[in-house]
Amino acid sequence: MEKQAQLREYIDQVAEWAKQLEAWWRGHDHPDIHYDFNRLWSRLEEQEEWTDVEVYELQGMATQLYEKTVRLIQEQQLDSVADRENEMEEQREARVPIGRHQLPPLPYRYDALEPHISEEIMRLHHTKHHQSYVDGLNQAEKMMQKARETNQYGLLKHWEREAAFHGSGHYLHTIFWNNLTPNGGGNPHGRLLEQIKEDFGSVERFKRHFTEAAKSVEGVGWAILVWAPRPGRLEILHTEKHQFMTQWDTIPLLVLDVWEHAYYLQYKNDRSAYIESFWKIVNWRDVEERFAQASRLRWKPF
Ligand SMILES: [Fe+2]
């Protein structure tokens, strides 16, 4: 191939590369980079015959542009990491003290979900039902705090039940309000869509399973799509009522099995002795690790 044709081919490749790079930069407001592109384009467009020296100069311009791009991307990444860290720091500081939960505001107007859910339902559901969960949880937390301070655990079972019932009510409704929007419907996108397809086969199958789960709840309750960190899968669960001595939206750190199969052969009916022994074998390093992982997950406090 003739030398000039070879150079021409190379120049075309540079132009193609520059076009892609510029397209990537479109939308990024950075006068410097646009000035550099303009210089490169006028050089590429004006020149017809190329010498080795001129090609060498062009390579220099391209290299400069490339290095500048890499630097700017790194700076942007650092900025966004810093922003994220600030945000996380703010969230770490924001916490709900014992007995100080609040009713979160609805993220839309009471009539916003009509005709699907009426204004009347939304108003009652939010201001009466959800508010009573918040009040009940606050009271249960304060009473358990009092029990710890006075070493009086006579009513613990009652307050644990109350904390489970009202706590689950408060946390699940807080998720529920945000799970809904007047502009909703359709299908999920992105990573969630991929995960749903992987775990349920298709969005249609997922929706069918979730629908059936919701229909089959006996009496009152919830259908719940969860992420299970252990198998790394999405799963659909449902819960009757919503408590059974638990609070949804919490992560277990330390658990003690008190089913009889866990101690009966050795301790017979002396569960207390078994629990005493448990404290001698707790693996706090494991609990610390679970806490370190779990506490990275922070939602806006309410
Ligand atoms: Fe409800």
TrEMBL record:
The EC number(s) given in the record are 1.15.1.1
Residue intervals passing through the bilayer: none
User: What is the name of this protein?
Assistant: superoxide dismutase
Domain Manganese/iron superoxide dismutase N-terminal residue range list: 101-180
- Give the range the annotation lists for the signal sequence: none
UniProt domain Manganese/iron superoxide dismutase C-terminal: residue ranges: 188-290
Q: Which organism is it from?
A: Anoxybacteroides rupiense
Q: Which domain of life is it from?
A: Bacteria
One Pfam family it belongs to: Sod_Fe_N
User: According to its UniProt record, which protein family does this protein belong to?
Assistant: Belongs to the iron/manganese superoxide dismutase family.
- Print the keywords alphabetically: Metal-binding, Oxidoreductase
Family matches, as InterPro entries: Fe/Mn_Superoxide_Dismutase (IPR050265), Mn/Fe_SOD (IPR001189), Mn/Fe_SOD_BS (IPR019833), Mn/Fe_SOD_C (IPR019832), Mn/Fe_SOD_N (IPR019831), Mn/Fe_SOD_N_sf (IPR036324), SOD_C_sf (IPR036314)
